[in-house]
Design brief:
The complex is a heterodimer of chains A (107) and B (114). Chain A is an all-beta fold and 107 residues long. Chain A is 0% helix and 47% strand. In chain A, strands 1-9-8-3-4 form a five-stranded mixed beta sheet, with no helix packed on it. A four-stranded antiparallel beta sheet of chain A has the order 2-7-6-5, with no helix packed on it. In chain A, a hairpin with a 4-residue loop joins β5 and β6. With 114 residues, chain B is mainly beta. In chain B, 0% of the residues lie in helices and 49% in strands. In chain B, strands 2, 4, 5, 6, 9, 10 and 11 form a seven-stranded mixed beta sheet that branches. In chain B, a hairpin with a 2-residue loop joins β5 and β6. Chain B is globular, with a radius of gyration of 13 Å. Chain B starts with a strand and ends with a strand. Classes of the chains: A mainly beta (107), B mainly beta (114). At the A-B interface, β4 of A face β5 and β10 of B.
Chain lengths: 107, 114
C-alpha cells in the first residue's frame, strides 16, 4: 500500500544526469518526500528529503512540484556506483517502501 | 562514526527451527527499527523501538516473531518456528536525534529457510 508510483526501471549513461520521477498524488500536507537507494547486497541509504521546497545536497537534487503531487530526483553526474534501486517514499515518521526504480548506469 | 552492525550476515536453517538476529545501532540512537525485505520487494517495517519500549509492532507476526531491546541499545529479533516464507533479508536501522530525518541501515542478515 505504498503511496508512490515509480517506473520499475530506467537506464542512464555514465556522466549524464539521471532524472528519476515519482508520483504521489495523495500526499498529505504534513508528509515529506524521502528518497533512499539500495545498492545490491547493502542496506538502504538515505539520499535526500523535502517538504515543499526544492532541496540539494552533495548527492542529489530533489524537485517537488508546486502541488506536491509529484517529484523528481536528479543525480547530476551519474557514475557506475549509482546503479541501485531508488525508493521514493512519502511519510511523516514511518517509512513505507514500495518496489522502487531499478536504475542502471551504463558506461 | 561507526555504522549499524548486524550479525550474522547469512543464516540457513530448516523450517520449524528457531533463529535469532542481532543488531547494534549507532551509538546514541534512541530509535531502532527491524525491517523484512523479501526478494524483489522493498523493506517492510516489522517493529520500531524508542529506547527499550515498543512504538509500533503492528506488522510483526507475533505468533512466531519476537524482538527485544532490553537496555535500549542492542536488539535481537527471533523467529520461532521458522517457515519457508520467512526467507528474506532482515534489516536493522537506527535514527538519531540530530539527524532525525535519516534512518541509518545495517547491511542486513540474509535468512534462507529450507
Amino acid at each position: 500500500d505504498a503511496k508512490t508510483t515509480q517506473p520499475p526501471s530506467m537506464d542512464c549513461a555514465e556522466g549524464r544526469a539521471a532524472n528519476l520521477p515519482c508520483n504521489h498524488s495523495t500526499i498529505s500536507g504534513n508528509e515529506y518526500v524521502y528518497w533512499y537507494r539500495q545498492i545490491h547486497s547493502q542496506g538502504p541509504q538515505y539520499i535526500i528529503h523535502g517538504l515543499k521546497n526544492n532541496e540539494t545536497n552533495e548527492m542529489a537534487s530533489l524537485i517537488i512540484t508546486e502541488d506536491r503531487k509529484s517529484s523528481t530526483l536528479i543525480l547530476p553526474h551519474a557514475t557506475l556506483r549509482d546503479t541501485a534501486v531508488y525508493y521514493c517514499i512519502v511519510a511523516t515518521l514511518k517509512l513505507s517502501f514500495g518496489a522502487g526504480t531499478t536504475v542502471t548506469v551504463r558506461a | 562514526e561507526a555504522g549499524v552492525a548486524q550479525s550474522p550476515r547469512y543464516k540457513i536453517i530448516e523450517k520449524r527451527q528457531s533463529v535469532a538476529f542481532w543488531c547494534n545501532p549507532i551509538s546514541g540512537h534512541a530509535t531502532l527499527y527491524w525491517y523484512q525485505q523479501i526478494l524483489g520487494q522493498g523493506p517492510k517495517l516489522l517493529i520500531q523501538f524508542q529506547n527499550n519500549g515498543v512504538v509500533d509492532d503492528s506488522q510483526l507476526p507475533k505468533d512466531r516473531f519476537s524482538a527485544e531491546r532490553l537496555k535500549g541499545v542492542d536488539s535481537t529479533l527471533k523467529i520461532q518456528p521458522a517457515k519457508l516464507e520467512d526467507s528474506a533479508v532482515y534489516l536493522c536501522a537506527s535514527l538519531g536525534l540530530i539527524s532525525s530525518d535519516e534512518q541509518f541501515f545495517g547491511p542486513g542478515t540474509r535468512l534462507t529457510v529450507l
